[in-house]
Amino acid sequence: MGVAINPMGVSIANYTNNLISELVKITNDDFEIFLIDFFTGKIIEDISPEDNLVPIMKQVNMLSFSKILMRQTIYSGKLQSKIIEKKIDVVHVPFLGRPAPPIPLAFSKVKVVVTNHGMANLALPKSYFYRKNDLARKMFDFTQVLQWHLIKDRLATIITVSHSEKYNIAKNLNISLDKIRVIYHGVSDEFRPISDKRELEETFKKYGVNQPYIFHLSAYQPKKNLVGVLKAFAVAKKKYRIPDRLVIGGKQPTIIKDITKSLNIQDDVIFTGFIANKDLPKLYSGAKFFIFPSFHESFGLPILEAMASGTPVITSNVFSLRELGEGVALLVNPYNLNEIAEAMYTLSVDNVLRRKLRNKGLKKAQEFSWEVTAKKHLKVYQEALAS
């Protein structure tokens, strides 16, 4: 069986890289994997488990939807010829969500599987995504929802990453629940408790981190609720006088740093900027706890990475974060700053609770592996071929 996977979208690089690496390990000689760039027709063969696929991932420019649609049309013939040439049975597009399935697939006879990583723009108020005059993004979202409607019946299976997002997709795109398959992400082996003091201290020095600290990780988006984290932290410092600093990982805009100054907590907040993958497990492991109270997540991989690293977690009681965190994390209403601040205080001072959540989180994280994820994808491919 031949399966073609289009590895597009920088934010999905980790998923695609781990998925393909595991697929190559578990399949036999009767199974071939090709990577196809739908916009150029370029094809990559002979993939091994050791290959790093991240450099070939491409980022979709959300504002250039007309250019994207034009390219899809131009290269549709080249795509079809590659499918025929390589005798591809199933095409898997793993980067979807707000970008819809590529138009050329509507004209192909091949079985089509897609992964929709989530459509927060359909689940949250529009104010989280659009400024008053953000016409380009509104037009992009409109065209993508329309494109989903046009092509949904052509799809063999839609994979998504949580039961919460399955219902969001089904409701807002009017897609049958039977067509949507939930397959959770895995957690990479490098996320584990790290106790080597020298290793931790070198990482702390690199990023200017001092213990004790609370850790948050995200690339700035309003739905990540980082402003809420900062405001709740300010309350926790003033009202409860917690001793911890707040370490913010990921690139953040100037406005976030300005808010930190306006709350007069700038001396207790550390912005690390981009964090290398090899350093993440150490920063998780060194934290007193991890806080991630997003308004919406389709999956919420950072909370599982934190759990796998032996770090207690505070997260939201909504969408997939409740699905993954219930019973193993402190759940809070992401819209209630006082509730978040109180949870920060509780976990800061309660050593017994931190130890309890640490143990529960470690056990929970063991349920998620990329090998299991790959096996479930392979089953989807086989079912699509047999249908």
Description:
- The chain is α/β, with parallel strands linked by helices.
- 43% of the residues lie in helices and 15% in strands.
- It is built from 14 helices and 13 strands.
- The chain has helices at 13-26, 65-85, 120-123, 135-151, 163-173, 197-207, 226-239, 254-262, 280-286, 301-308, 319-325, 337-349, 351-365, 370-386; strands spanning 2-5, 32-36, 43-44, 90-96, 111-116, 157-160, 180-182, 213-217, 245-249, 269-273, 289-292, 313-316, 330-332.
- A seven-stranded mixed β-sheet has the order 3-2-1-4-5-6-7, sandwiched between helices. A six-stranded parallel β-sheet has the order 10-9-8-11-12-13, sandwiched between helices.
- The longest helix is centred in the N-terminal third of the chain and has 21 residues, at 65-85.
- Residues 1-10 and 53-74 have low confidence and may be disordered.
